[in-house]
Specification:
Helix content is about 45%, strand content about 25%. The protein has about 300 residues and is α/β, with parallel strands linked by helices.
Length: about 300
Amino acid sequence: MPDITLRQLRYFSTLSGVLQYREAARQLGISQPSLSQQIALLEEAVGARLVERRRSGLILTPAGRDVTQRAERILGEVHALKEAARPAGDTLTGTLRLGASPTVGPYLLPRVLRHLHQEHPDLRLVIRDGTPRALLEDLLAGRHDLILAQLPLPEDEVRVRPLFREDLRLAVARDHPIARAERVTASDLVGEDMLALSASYGLHRQMMSLAAEAGAVLRADFEGTSLDAVRQMVALGMGVSILPALYVWSEVARRDADVVCVPLRPAATREVGLAWRIGSGTPPAYRRLADVIRARIDADFSDLVTVLG
């Protein structure tokens, strides 16, 4: 029986994530025949079929699901071993894989990345977005080195460094009566339809809590997959929602915006932080990256958010 190689496990982990040979080969930078050959060798080594071809694409067999979980654990341990073997230091060099929530990353990271590129040219930051739930799973599986996400996160599994706190604003259609208010209290929302992100997002819990406290009705027939989708539904008069301050600054703060955002009183906020696996220890480079992000936030967004120490 042939040996199993780390290359085969890495290739299969990528394939199991996208379930398409063409896309997996593209991500890996290899040809489809080379990928197929390595998967066939892995199947021979474990003595079982790992994927099945269907008209709709690939599916994992029961053995394939088991091998996927084991492969991710092995690859994570190998990556941790490499990290542990690196010289200590806070120099930002090499490649770091950062997962970012789409409710945070697009509105914060462009300025951070510009600064990092100028001040730390030897650092390559590979960024992928995903729901907070998926980000955490990918972090624990070793597919990300760090994640940028809304807090809290399960701190028994990860180390967390808080970065900032931002206000949440109530978003309403431009012709909604609340659009003319200077601030909104819970009593103003009685009976209002409220639109929420899916339960994969931390903001979903806050939207549910606000709806329950205010006597608003959380719409069960709509769950947005992005802040843009929620905002567009609000603009169509389908309900009200809450949006983070950085998003409002980036996408709403203009005279011809399709929605109006009003401060809540008492204020509703969320916290965002940087997290990594406990098994990674606390690499100085991770702390350094958190400090760089904080400094950029303080320089560019101090009027919108509160930097956390």
